[in-house]
Amino acid sequence: xxxxxxxxxIGLSVCMLSIVFSSASMATKIATExxxxxxxxxxxxxxxxxxxxxAKILAQETKTVLIKTEKExxxxxxxxxxxxxxxxxxxxxxxxEEGLKKATTLQEVEKVKSEAANLLKKEKELFKAExxxxxxxxxxxxxxxxxxxxxxxxxxxxxxxxxxxxxxYYYDVNKNEFVPNNKVNITEEVKEFEKKHKEDxxxxxxxxxxxxxxxxxxxxxxxxxxxxxxxxxxA
Length: 235
Description:
Helix content: 55-70%
Largest sheet: 4 strands, antiparallel
Strand content: 15-25%
Low-confidence stretches: 1-30
Radius of gyration: 36 Å
Number of helices: 6
Number of strands: 4
Order of helices and strands: HEHHEEEHHH
Strand order of the largest sheet: 1-2-3-4
């Protein structure tokens, strides 16, 4: 009886493990198909002469990675610009008022206006030259569940010349959108993934292209000979 109970327990455990692995396999398959559709849609929009639905996922890993993005912080520049504009407005008014007190002719009035404009222009140029130091660089960090994908695809030229291509794709599984490669290419996980699948990038030429070219070249040689032979026979 104990032996039968042990067998039953083992059988039940095997069944449960099978269900777990089957569910995990199914989930992975569904996720892969979703990513494949996304890659196809992306290529349709961005790749010239893309052969529809030709993408194949060669490898895929999903990891939580830390993405660092450099951004320009212009808040200090905006503050300094506002202060500068207020200062120049006050100085311009004071300069013009002082100049008009001394002006007695229309020509002198125009001269005051011209000097005020030149002063404003000069101050703006000086402020612009110094404005770069008010722009700071800050680094934003973001944790992303990133699907790293190595995929092959094809392009078609002149309806029958097919070329094999390869690309790495990075997909934010939470936002359901691709992350630009230049945004993640310094991430260690991405560098490791690309290194691991470096061989995927070595694509081979399609032998059918060589065959088609050989046939076309052969026809170019045969047709003139055939025409020449026909003309000699008629003559």
